Amino acid sequence: GSPCGGGRACRALWSLRLSGLGIDIVWWVGGFLVAVGLLVAVHEFGHFWVARRLGFKVEKFKIGFGRTLWSRRIRGGETEFAIGAVPLGGYVKMLDEREGPVDPADLPRSFTRRPVWQRVLVLLAGPGFNLVFAVLVYAIISAVPTEMRRLVVGAVDVHGPADRAGLEANDELMTIDGEPVSAADVDLEILSHLIDAREVKLGVRTSPAGRVEREVTLRITESEQRTLTDGDPFLVLGMNLWVPGQRVVLGKVETGAARDAGLAVGDRLLAIDGEPAGNLDSARSLIERRGGRTAIFRIERAGNELEMPVAVRQVTEQGRVVGRIGVAFDTRPEVMQTAEFPESMLVKRRLGPVDALMSGVGTAATVSGVIVRLFWKMLTGHVSPRNLGGPVAIAKAAGDSARAGAMPFFGFLAFVSLSLAIMNLLPVAVLDGGQIVYQLAEAVRGQPLSERAQVLGQQIGLAMIVVLLSFVLVNDFTRMFHR
Fold it and tell me: Annotated catalytic, 343?
């Protein structure tokens, strides 16, 4: 039976929910395959292109692992191009006499016979192409003429960092530490400034016609800083940005206050204690402000409006006392049906080619800095490792961004491309960074590391990758079943 009971309307709602999940999975799998296939191809093409230009003999270029689904030889049969059945990686195989006999005429083109600096360049080329790809994608996103939302504060949570700083509803964010900010990069800029410091200065205005009218200092506690990267930074800061009307529909009802009151998946929330729940942010804010009280929820179910008293629990999260009822809202675009932004809440952005390229470089540099600093803080225990996501999280993000449109999906590709570049530069033997360490050690010693040392390093590196993959998979499924 369905979790919401045995009624016909409930069964219909639950069947609709399962159908929606099936559509989600199609988007997730499709987005994941496109993203992984494209980014792996970019990475491996970097190795291939530079190796060919430097005179290495490339025997095979393969995208994917496992059984070969398609292959073809070009350049007189010297290089085999192939696609494998498992689209989770790829490789470029260069001539190497350590793997078998080599024709004496080809020995000068063997990987181990090329100068160390050339080998290092070939190894750097994969991450380098991922970096260039990200810069170009961010530049393309910046070059597309677009209308962006004004950064107008919609609501401020009581006792949160934004409230302590003196931010108010209808304030418009103009600068962060004196630098202009827009909707395209506000999340990234806030995160970048607050990863290492616990305060940031915001320039705000209250009149659309004015400039920066006042400056406020936003301060966060150490615990708030640790959770800043768990999701939407604005939630931790205790504020949200203004959005037009949305349908607020329950996507999940857990055991607790909401279930006890009779709320069910598919209910549309209209108002709480007579105050309209016009969008997701206002609904969350209305619930949070009613901790420890019984509130009247007005909902729409199967075309009928109902009023239900709900005993809102009072809990302490990140040092704040808030109300919770044990629900999650359905955030699928087709369910929320967000209204269009009015012209008064939009600003137009149009960049020329040079400015767009500079913007792409700047965004890639900022994102890379955030990724590196977050990874370091995870290693040192200053940021929760729950932020690490594995294949499931990547697939979900790929599908959700693809469903949201071309530009969000391109932005996702650029972010993952940078992450792939940085990850591959780690000094782990099975990654490009570890192989670079081997080459540099050979340059210092005047001879290669012993075969035993290289095998040991690869075994350690492989074990590290297996442990990391196991950890992120646990994270993935924990998020899936506990949110």
Answer: no
